[in-house]
Amino acid sequence: MKWPDNIEELLVDYAEGNLSSDKLLIVEKWLAEHPEDLDLLMNWNDNFGLSEADFEVDADFSSLFVDKELNAEEMMILEVEGLLPEKKKKVLDEACLISKPLAIEREIFSLSKLDYERDAIVIDKSTLKKKGLIIPFRVNSWAPYVAAASLLIFILSILPQEPNAVYKIRGSASPKIVQFEAEALPLFAASEPRQTESMSTSIPLEPITQVTTHSKLRSFPRMKHRTAVQIETPAISRTLSYQNFVIKTTPVGANQVKQFVAKSKTYDGVFAFVQDKVLQKLPFDLKGKNIEQILSSEIPKASDGKFALDIQNGRLLAVKTPVIEWKRK
Amino acid sequence: MLSPQEYNESVELYADRLFLFAYKRIQNHEQAKDIVQESFTKIWLKRNEIQSSKIKSYLFTTCHRAIIDYVRHRDKFSAETTIPESRSRESNHDLKEIMDQALNRLPDIQQTVLMLRDYEGYNYQEIAEVTSLSESQVKVYIFRARKKMKDYLVKLDLVL
Lengths: 329, 160
Description:
The complex is a heterodimer. Chain A is α+β, with helices and mostly antiparallel strands. Chain A has eleven helices and eight strands. Helix content of chain A is 33%, strand content 13%. In chain A, strand 3 and strand 4 form a beta hairpin. Chain B is mainly alpha-helical. The interface between A and B is large, with 34 and 41 residues.
């Protein structure tokens, strides 16, 4: 019998059930003489069938990668993806050899791999780049903010200074807040325990023999006096001077109150330097009184502030220091 | 943190790729350029939070989101919708045009994952990160995209 040239196509159509009765007869005769092709066709639907059900995509694509029979379409897609195992590729190669439609479909699938288009370019890349000194905004965009900030600073500098205003401390030597026992500083502890502070380091262990102060006028951003305290002790011939503290000066009426507070093992008290004029301004006289006398006294509330006591010596030491701040140089 | 030098290098490396990515999606040259510029601007503003090794991923993620915003806005004001440049020349049936048409007929998300896969060579996990999809979703979208492209090409009967 003379076999038609397109016998492979007929085999494929046979497998897919698309043959007319006359062509069906030809194929059946072919298969009778070529049993090896019969085996191929027996497994056709398992290996290469393109039923509609096969078009449904498995929600979990990973299941396609396990070693199980794959349909041709999945194999072709995996091939485009570069994920088709070599063994499966050989099966696909063989199938395409005997099926031209399959080979065409494989070719078309390969076109679904997009080629990078090198003619798509951004010509003016330089406009996207950053050049020279990189400033996040143009000068004309942030200049108004600078002007506004300058104006704000100027206004703040000319405003009257609040009596209780304090300096902001810079640097790492922030004051340590000391909660005084009520017995130690009853008048402070009663109402404002946090308003007296103590340093935690660089405290002279010996009694302080002399304290001198140096005032410095600071004009910007606010007009304010700053006072550096210079301490001398018998064991320390050098002074602690400016390596120690800057203390806020607080206006009380027309005067300035300067106070230095220190606590140590040997000087367990509060030392203060108070201008006599300030004491004279107080509406009560406690100068020189000891603690028993003070505590037993009827003390009017001093509008100008509080006072600190030296427990050891029972002396009034300071007046009106809402917050003491200092800075280590 | 991204240095200015690294930023400029990323412009050189990725501007074209971002442009292609954006242009293929929205089919408008000027808008694609704007989206590329917007993406780089956002990257620059966030440079302190970005590792230089991740910049490509950041860029494509930013660009992808910008494209989504643009498409949403365009669709909302459909009267202003521009005719896609490539679709206005459907009579030109060379292979590139046909492939563009096939790509343009895909849903947006399928276009996106396919371009990231083929143009940028991203793996599924990387695509998932850029598009905020799961890895499984990415695989399914790629599978469907290739099948739809094939179906379109078969339907045209023009390619081979």
